[in-house]
Amino acid sequence: MSRIGRLPIPIPAGVTVVADGQAVSVKGPKGELALVVSNPITVSIEDGHVLVTRPNDERQSRSLHGLTRTLINNQIIGVTVGYTKGLEIVGTGYRAAQKGTSVEFALGFSHPVVVEPPVGIVLTVESVNKLTVSGIDKQAVGEVAANIRKIRKPEPYKGKGVRYAGEIVRRKAGKSGK
């Protein structure tokens, strides 16, 4: 049996979880999220806990069991605490500036790059070279952070570019002079 999938998920105070057939909705102080559970997996709520069960030991059921439990747990954490992802900008002249809800980047291109956040995501510029992506949906926060990093990935010779907070960039030696 799945070690992760069989663990019950405690429902914290202020959070309501509704399991209606294959649809699961989680509502909390920060917002509301919904999930459609794949077919063989069933979700039930019993005495303040969410239980995820599978009908058999087929390969697909086993693979979806732990995944479904983790997705529901991530939603509960998202509506109570939320998720944040930090980004750092490294390089001479590289910077970010807040323009309303969007962020304008100067990353060595001939033009500034403006990033509009999708619904439910907040971009915050803490300093000219630090940025925070936050929201209640873990997947959306990670995707927005990855798309911002993709604009100018850290290059291996000088380490210039956009990187995750705490990310270690492996550096190459470069050319050696005679």
From TrEMBL:
One GO term of the biological process aspect: cytoplasmic translation
One term under GO cellular component: cytosolic large ribosomal subunit
GO MF annotations in UniProt: rRNA binding; structural constituent of ribosome
Domain Large ribosomal subunit protein uL6 alpha-beta, first and last residues per copy: 11-82, 90-164
PROSITE patterns (alphabetical): RIBOSOMAL_L6_1
Keywords: Ribonucleoprotein, Ribosomal protein, RNA-binding, rRNA-binding
The keyword Cell membrane appears for this protein: no
The keyword RNA-binding is annotated on this UniProt entry: yes
One Pfam entry name: Ribosomal_L6
Assembly with partners or alone: Part of the 50S ribosomal subunit.
Entry's family note: Belongs to the universal ribosomal protein uL6 family.
Function, as annotated: This protein binds to the 23S rRNA, and is important in its secondary structure. It is located near the subunit interface in the base of the L7/L12 stalk, and near the tRNA binding site of the peptidyltransferase center.
NCBIfam families recorded: L6_bact (TIGR03654)
Protein name: Large ribosomal subunit protein uL6
Species this protein is from: Cryobacterium levicorallinum
